[in-house]
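Exercise 3.2. Students should predict the tertiary structure of the chain below and write it as structure tokens, then compare their answer with the key that follows.

Predict this chain's 3D structure.
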Amino acid sequence: MELLLKGAMNLYYFERKEIENMSSEYYNSNLISQYFLFEKEDGTAWVIDKHPDRIVNGTQIHSDTRYKGKIRYAFNSIKPITDSYETIEFTQKSMINTAKLYNDAVCRTDEKYVIFSMKK
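Answer key:
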């Protein structure tokens, strides 16, 4: 697990190879499920995940976008996030920006957060 941002809302990233669930319905044989863990100072945490793309009906690619609804639910009291949750991408950069929005909304001006890593 990699710590990406430390603040009032910590953000972690990890991934898991999906060997057991391999089937022909998956688009990419490199089956990696990705996870972001948002953790508040009080210990409350949400895992936001995205599963590999799948081929549906032999030709259509289905991308897992359920993470957007999970973000909306987890951050339902943070207006800058709920107003823009549809545009959030499942990337480290976008999730770090989401955690920054949370920290900016709930922290006093003298509190800071530290970004440890940012990949595209």
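Discussion points: The chain has a mean pLDDT of 83. The radius of gyration is 16 Å.
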